[in-house]
Each structure stands twice: as C-alpha cells, then as structure tokens.
Write a structure and sequence with these properties.
A hairpin with a 4-residue loop joins strand 1 and strand 2. This protein is 33% helix and 41% strand. The chain has a six-stranded mixed sheet, with helices on one face. The termini are far apart. It has one domain: Nuclear Transport Factor 2, Chain: A (Roll), CATH 3.10.450.50.
Amino acid sequence: MRMFFKYILLVGILVIFGWSCLNPFAPRFEEEFPGETCSDLTNTDNVFCVFRNAYTFKDTTLYGSVIASVFTFIYTDYDRGVDVTWGRDDEMRTTYGLFQSAQSLNLIWNNVLSSSGDEIQQTIVRGFNLTVTFNPSDITHVDGYANITMARPTANDPWKIIRWRDESNF
C-alpha cells in the first residue's frame, strides 16, 4: 500500500512539474504567425514581412536589416505645406523612439496598388493600417499608403528599402 502512495505522489509531482512549464495564457508561436518565415529577402514580399515583424516585436535590429544606408524617408507636413525628408540615422532614431514609447504596434499590410521596376529596383505602393497603443487610453490609428522603393546590387542580393514616401492620414 505504501508503494502505491509513493507511486501516486511521484506521478503527481511529475504532472505538476510538467504543467508548471506551460503558460496557458501565451499563444503558441506557430498559432500567432502560422508558418510564416520571411528570411529570404530576395523576395520583396518578405521585406514587408520583416518590416511587419520588426514593428510587432519592436525590434530595431530587425527593422534596420531592411533599411539601406542611403535610405530616405519623405512625408508631407500639411500644416506647413512642405515635404519633410530624413535619412537612415534619423529613421532609426525615430523608429527606436516609437518602439520604446509604444506598448504595442500592430501593422497590417494591405493590397499592392501598384508595382513597377526591374530585378534590381522596385517601387511598390501598398496600403497599410497601423495601430499604435501607447497605453489603454491612448491608441492611435494610422491608415494610408506606403510608396516604397527597394533596390539591390544584383538580382541575387537581398532587397533593401532605399526610399519610403509616407502617404498616410497622420
């Protein structure tokens, strides 16, 4: 009889120990991003995938991997009636600030409106929806179009974003 209780106790300890390693409130990785990998940056779709993942995980290293050293960001300041531009360093600093101040970021890439270019330079205009949650009472929604130009030295090299014209409502 004592052996039976020792056996039940051992099984109980093993079950509790096994369950303690599981978090029932955390989704499994493959459920959150089902089968999506975007490591092959010779495909322009994967550049958008990396971009989205960088925002989701608030990862400037990942984001920087698709931003070229000659990068230019352009947006229209409607209050002043001028286009504002900056380079890669300012882009990385601005993005880092956004990633640090936001509680969460949800970027959804919509349909491609237009695409032109060749195997070493592509310009893609694509709709997007971005939700920035700073805290539960401060949530910003940005909708618009990203006019993105990507380039690479040869057809076998990875794409890098060299120009991004933001055409959003923000």
